[in-house]
Amino acid sequence: MVLFPQAMRDALEEGHIVFRILDVVKTLDISCITDRMEERDPRGTRPYHPRMMLALLMYAYCCGIYSS
Predict the structure, then answer these.
(1) Who is most buried in 19, 21, 44, 48, counting CB within 10 A?
(2) Dihedral of CA 37/38/41/47: which sign?
(3) What is the pTM of this model?
(4) DSSP structure class, residue 11
(5) Cβ contacts of residue 47 below 8 Å, gap of 6+?
(6) Which sign does the torsion angle of CA 35, 53, 58, 6 carry?
(7) In sequence order, which ranges of 1-68 are alpha helices (DSSP H)?
(8) pLDDT in tens, 10-55
(9) Is the pLDDT assigned to residue 59 strictly greater than 70?
């Protein structure tokens, strides 16, 4: 038995706000953030991608979650 769907997109209905947020975040120019990340020491693991973190922050604000 599978507890979660193969893809999380399958668990959301069509037209869910998260899809709109992802579309908006894709269009934003975040090169000032990604360029600074590339300037740093290339060793070690990379942090979460800034687009993913921005989308998560926007979704939380839209849902009324302002703190962890």
Answers:
(1) 21
(2) positive
(3) 0.74
(4) G
(5) 37
(6) positive
(7) 17-27, 31-39, 50-62
(8) 778 888 999 999 999 999 999 998 888 777 766 767 778 899 999 9
(9) yes
Q: Are 37 and 20 in contact (CB under 8 A)?
A: no
Token representation of residue 35: 């360029």
Q: What is the pLDDT of residue 3?
A: 75
Closest Cα to residue 26, out of 4, 52, 59? 52
Question: Which tokens hold the place of 63?
Answer: 């849902």
Query: Distance between CA 51 and CA 28 in Å, rounded?
Result: 9
CA distance 37 to 39: 5
Residue type at 43 in one-letter notation:
R
Closest to 33 in 3D by CA, of 56, 53, 58, 50: 50
As a whole number of Å, the CA-based R_g of the chain is: 15
